[in-house]
């Protein structure tokens, strides 16, 4: 490599190398942290993309299984669609970078982070954002503000910077903080009910720790950075803009000040129709400018309303939550349902309980290979009153589902306490702000309705922000509506319980957040969360005492791990026979835990009885009621336990001499036998005569005496 620079972060080496790789990219580089390595390539088009009203940034996070020494599964044996972890990591890289590009920049930009080597102690997801920022800063692309990302753990009250794999297992939280040199750009957090004050201090610790990486990027740019290009930035035609504003400004303000959402939208439709009638023919070549001008006018009105008139579009106070409604037990055949409504946002969440064997298998580079609790989120077009083709979940849906899932992970009971796999599906029925946090609330209701013994109920809320251009005015909003999110500066989502925070996700559209904003948002979210939790508790104060009649009934027993093969049998013969006879589903773990599931109690009980019989050990001295299954000249083979038989020698069939086995027993007879020996090879020797009751022997002796007397 031609160019190389390194530093030390949390006791591990961070290094960049570039110059001899990817020579046709604007910048191509390896960035490593320990033995975790990201190959990052950044490129931009020479000219702006015509006819668009957005910045076309594409961020890709590519996982390569060779990075962890794995060959992909399946027939094709190569990486397929991105894993959920890959999609979430790509979103995490994109979100802090996008607001820092210059306004009006319309050139296509692509950032590709390819994970080529992974050391489990150094998470590639954290390194990727640092690598993307470094590559963009080194490139000729007009990106000039470095961002740095760190992970913060919490062990025994102490904050840990970039915790190792072992430390992450012990940590009470997993916090990702992305910052510039002045402000916080992004926060992602999952925690075990972390108090607000602790979370705020953890974010400050992350911000301060990230500054060393910022300085590392600045040093690299000073030594190796390319000259930045000066592209054409998009701006609407000044004269056209002035003419449109003169015609429509008053109408836009009047429409946007209407508090009812439907009435406001109808009024804006009328305004847009008048503007189109006035300008579409006269300025046909400037219609893309017209859309931008109208958007900016609406944005100005909403922000002025909030900042200078302290009035929200819907008329609420800044700290007020919209009306909350909670319902459960909505659908008759599902295992648990929760319908959560907050204003015009409404989410229906359905819980499904499966056997422990229904867990999800994860095929990726993360250390986790499966999970038994899943949350899936669907956002159809009808939720916003639009018509669009129905397709599979996109990056947004996957991200929102993962966020709601993270909020409840610390509260889900262990497999030992609740032997089920749990799947939640949140259907967004109506969207007007923060459907992901409504999904947290709907999920809590569905889990309680399904009889899942949650540690505590959880709820979530989204906080918003409006700032002046010079950042001298800042207003934090509780429970943001769609219009406040659309024209606002941040989406600060916080979920948790009465005891503390379980998840945070923060997106910002400006160049970062001050700690005043962060503290106000976190503390305001707690007040709103407690209000929502009161509504949830009023609807269903505790989990159902039993799972749904339609959910599988699961019983767990523990057996000697050495007996697992006896239950399974050669080629699965025994376990398949049990399943066929009882109609249950059986899952066995290496530690000897056996989970038996079925909608019918009778089948579960029967299967448990069979399994217990299989694993039960024959003990010397115990008497069993056995069944004769085979006769030989030297004795009878008797099944004393399921799939466990022993030999009763002909000399042990009766107290008197027996000439033929058939004189005493026949195949199918049930007789009492006593275990006299279990040899080193596990072979069982039985005795019928030692199991005969004493009274039978006494009757027999009397009979023999009488027979002798009669002969005499």
UniProtKB/TrEMBL annotation:
GO-annotated biological processes: mRNA catabolic process; RNA processing
Catalytic activity: RNA(n+1) + phosphate = RNA(n) + a ribonucleoside 5'-diphosphate
Binding, Mg(2+): 485, 491
Entry cofactors: Mg(2+)
Protein's cellular compartments: Cytoplasm
Gene Ontology cellular component annotations, sorted alphabetically: cytosol
Name by which UniProt lists this protein: Polyribonucleotide nucleotidyltransferase
Species, as recorded: Clostridium gasigenes
Gene: pnp
């Amino acid at each position: 490599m031609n160019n190389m620079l390194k530093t030390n972060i949390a006791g591990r080496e961070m290094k960049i190398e570039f110059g001899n790789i990817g020579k046709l990219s604007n910048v191509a580089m390896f960035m490593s942290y320990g033995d975790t390595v990201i190959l990052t390539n950044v490129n931009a088009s020479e000219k702006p993309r015509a006819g668009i009203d957005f910045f076309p940034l594409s961020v890709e996070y590519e996982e390569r299984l060779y990075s962890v020494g794995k060959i992909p599964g399946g027939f094709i044996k190569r990486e397929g669609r991105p894993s959920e972890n890959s999609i979430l990591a790509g979103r995490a890289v994109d979100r802090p970078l996008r607001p820092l590009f210059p306004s009006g920049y319309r050139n296509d930009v692509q950032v590709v982070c390819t994970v080529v080597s992974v050391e489990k102690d150094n998470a590639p997801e954290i390194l990727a954002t640092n690598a993307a920022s470094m590559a963009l800063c080194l490139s000729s692309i007009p990106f000039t503000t470095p961002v740095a990302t760190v992970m913060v753990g919490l062990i025994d009250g102490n904050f840990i910077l970039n915790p190792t794999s072992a430390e992450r297992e012990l940590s009470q939280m997993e916090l990702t903080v992305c910052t510039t040199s002045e402000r916080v750009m992004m926060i992602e957090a999952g925690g075990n009910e972390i108090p607000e004050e602790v979370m705020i201090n953890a974010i400050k610790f992350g911000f301060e720790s990230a500054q060393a990486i910022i300085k590392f990027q600045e040093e690299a740019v000073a030594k190796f950075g390319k000259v930045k290009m000066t592209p054409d930035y998009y701006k609407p035609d000044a004269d056209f803009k002035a003419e449109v504003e003169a015609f429509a400004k008053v109408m836009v303000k009047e429409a946007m000040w209407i508090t009812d959402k439907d009435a406001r939208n109808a009024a804006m439709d009328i305004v847009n129709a008048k503007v189109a009638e006035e300008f579409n023919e006269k300025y046909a070549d400037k219609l893309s400018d017209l859309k931008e001008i109208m958007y900016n006018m609406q944005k100005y009105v909403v922000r002025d309303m909030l900042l200078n008139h302290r009035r929200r579009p819907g008329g609420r106070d800044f700290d007020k939550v919209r009306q909350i409604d909670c319902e459960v037990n909505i659908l008759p055949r599902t295992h648990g349902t929760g319908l959560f409504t907050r204003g015009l946002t409404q989410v229906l969440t359905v819980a499904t309980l499966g056997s422990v064997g229904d867990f999800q298998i994860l095929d990726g580079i993360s250390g986790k290979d499966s999970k038994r609790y899943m949350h899936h989120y669907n956002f159809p077009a009808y939720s916003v009153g639009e018509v669009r083709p129905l397709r599979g979940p996109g990056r947004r849906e996957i991200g929102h589902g993962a966020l709601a899932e993270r909020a409840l992970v610390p509260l889900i009971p262990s497999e030992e306490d609740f032997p089920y796999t749990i799947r939640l599906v949140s259907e967004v029925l109506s969207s007007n702000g923060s459907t992901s946090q409504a999904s947290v609330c709907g999920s809590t209701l569905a889990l309680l309705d399904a009889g899942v013994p949650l540690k505590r109920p959880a709820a979530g809320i989204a906080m918003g922000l409006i700032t002046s251009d010079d950042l001298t005015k800042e207003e934090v909003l509780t429970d943001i509506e769609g219009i406040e999110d659309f024209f606002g500066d941040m989406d600060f989502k916080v979920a948790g319980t009465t005891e503390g925070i379980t998840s945070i996700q923060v997106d910002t559209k400006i160049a970062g957040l001050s700690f005043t904003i962060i503290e106000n948002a976190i503390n305001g979210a707690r007040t709103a969360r407690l209000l929502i939790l009161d509504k949830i508790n009023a609807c269903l104060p505790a989990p159902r005492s039993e799972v749904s009649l339609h959910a599988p009934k699961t019983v767990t027993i523990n057996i000697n791990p050495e007996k697992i093969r006896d239950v399974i049998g050669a080629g699965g013969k025994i376990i398949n026979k049990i399943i066929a006879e009882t109609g249950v589903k059986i899952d066995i773990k290496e530690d000897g835990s056996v989970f038996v599931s079925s909608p019918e109690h009778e089948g579960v009980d029967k299967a448990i009885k069979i399994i217990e019989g299989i694993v039960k050990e024959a003990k010397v001295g115990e008497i069993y009621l056995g069944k004769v299954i085979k006769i030989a000249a030297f004795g009878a083979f008797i099944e004393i336990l399921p799939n466990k038989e022993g030999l009763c020698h002909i000399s042990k069939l009766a107290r008197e001499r027996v000439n033929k086995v058939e004189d005493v027993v026949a195949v199918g007879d049930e007789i009492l036998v006593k275990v006299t020996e279990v040899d080193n090879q596990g072979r069982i020797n039985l005795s019928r005569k030692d199991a005969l009751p004493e009274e039978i022997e006494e009757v027999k002796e009397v009979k023999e005496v009488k027979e002798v007397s009669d002969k005499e």
